[in-house]
Each structure stands twice: as structure tokens, then as C-alpha cells.
Amino acid sequence: MMQELGQPGAEPCRVDLLTGDMKRSVDFYGRLFGWKTSGGNSGTEDSIDMYLGDELVAGFLNNDSGSECSDAWVTYLNVADAHAASYSAGMYGGCVFLQPLEIQGQGTLAMIGDPTGIGVGLWQSSTVRGLTKASGRHGTRIWNELHTTKFEKVTHFYRDALEWDLLSLSDTDEFRYQSYGQGPNAKAGIFDISGQPDPKPGWRTYFAVTDTDKALALAKNLGAKVLKQAQDSPFGRMAVLADPTGAEFSIIQTVPA
């Protein structure tokens, strides 16, 4: 569950938090993961980059009170051509929520949806600025995973529209999962949650921690809600949380190599 960014291959490249309370989110993630704002920002701005030391880890975006979107973590895929990828999404049964938009001096942004309507961002970078690596360091993004109740339809979409080379890790009624790449070169996963209790489709972001139980206890003290208690897995000890404004995320203490 770790990858390095290489040539654009529609792999997860960064995450943004859509939040209705910027100051509260800055405080929560700062105390949980040690993140700090850039340039002394106070948390009153509409857009803030968050850093761990000198490493960019995420962006925070203000979720306007008039927005129909819930607070959430948004995954972006690194593409060579946002226009072509958006067109391909439409060709293979998806939709385009936001047409490609050039961000001066940085790159081109778009937002697409798969055939079930689950959105994901596209980012065509003109520089390395704005990209994050899944390094495994405490407090950094380590894995991105799509949860879906329409597994066949969604896996076909990512294969066809974005040219994902998906490999089956398990194909049973109890656990159906495909990975984009494998082993240390794995980039993302697609998980069939149709048989899970209270399935909630969407992209999930995992953050690395040095100790899942300690991080979970701290998050609870900071106002987070525990959605799934800590449990061991083949990839490490993990838990699922909702931050104080409701955005869901996962933490994982990885297994030593």
C-alpha cells in the first residue's frame, strides 16, 4: 500500500479536504498529524495548503454554506491530459462534473464521475507543485481506495476510460477487491462493499500513523467520531473515522517490510 509518483498514469496524486469549518479542520489535523498551514495562514482563507515539515500533504478548501456537498476528502488522479481524460470518461459511461479548468502556472483541473456518479478529481500538472507522494511517513497520505456497490460496472469504467491495469486480489462473495498495480507498485484499489453492513460508496483516503490505537484515542479526544474501531489486516492495523465536521478518512499503521 505504497507508491511513488512517476509519469502520469491516472494514479492518485493528492487529496483535498472540503470543509465547512476551515479553522476547526486546521486545528484538528494539526493536532492529530502535526500538519501546519503555509505562510502563517490562520484558517480563515478559502484555500490553504497543509504541510508536514516542508512536505505538502493536502489542501483544504472552504465548503460554502450554500453548497449541496457534504464535507469530504477528495481524491485527485494525475493525468497527462485532463481534456482527453474527461472526454474518455464521458465516452465510457461516466460524466464530467467540472470541465477542465486551467489554474495559472500550476496545471489543469477537472472533476469526473464514474457511471454510478462517484466523483474523482483529475489533475494535469504543469509542475511538480501540488503533488504528494504516498511515502508512509506518519501523517501523510498512503493509500486511496474506491468503495462501490456496482463493482463490475466501476472496474470496467476505470479499465476502459482511464486505462487502469487492474489485478484481482480476491474474488469471493465475502471479499471482492481489485488493485491498480500490485505489491510495492500498487497505486489504488477498488473494493466491492455491496455485502458490507451499511455500505457507503465513495473514495476513501488512508493516512499513515505510527500507532493506530494512540492516533484513534487522540482523534476521539479532538472531536472525531469512530466509524470502525481499530482492527488488524494483512496491510496493517487500521481504523475509520469522521473528523469533527463529518469528513470520513482512515488511518493505518503499516506492517514493517
Walk me through the structure.
It comes from Glutamicibacter soli. Residues 11-125, 140-254 form the VOC domain. It holds the Pfam family Glyoxalase_6. This is VOC family protein. With 257 residues, this protein is α+β, with helices and mostly antiparallel strands. The chain folds into 2 domains: 11-125, 2,3-Dihydroxybiphenyl 1,2-Dioxygenase, domain 1 (Roll), CATH 3.10.180; 141-254, 2,3-Dihydroxybiphenyl 1,2-Dioxygenase, domain 1 (Roll). Helices cover 17% and strands 42% of the residues. It has 4 helices and 16 strands. It has an 8-stranded mixed β-sheet, with helices on one face. Strands 10-11-12-9-13-16-15-14 form an 8-stranded mixed β-sheet, covered by helices on one side. Strand 3 (47-52) and strand 4 form a beta hairpin. Helix 2 crosses helix 3 (151-162). The longest helix has 12 residues, at 22-33. It is globular and about 45 Å long. The N and C termini lie close together (11 Å).
